[in-house]
Design brief:
The protein has about 120 residues and is mainly alpha-helical. The chain has four helices and no strands.
Amino acid sequence: MISFTTLKNSARFARHGLFIVWREEQNFRVEIVAAILAIICGVLLSFTVIELSIVSLLIGCILAMECANSALERLLDIIKPRVSEYVRSIKDIIAAMMLILVITSLLVTIFLYIPKLINLFTIVI
């Protein structure tokens, strides 16, 4: 049976986690602003439902990965608080993972936005 109290507590914990990431991670705040702009531009450029879904999926992946990145970095700081070569290399690998996701998202975004922008400027000119 579904426990609504458990669901309510889970949602409260998740909101608290989002608040922590928002408050303490500058990259997360920048990504939120970029996400809002991406959605607004997609709507203004008359993206299809599928195109907006792709943009939304990428946004969700980036934000979720940023949360995982922050959590893993905190865990590593607890396990090995002093500077360790292993911790440093793990953090670098996590940063590389984020970079790969952001670059992939940028490429997909370019593929989605450029044709719309070219079409817009062709109509205006």
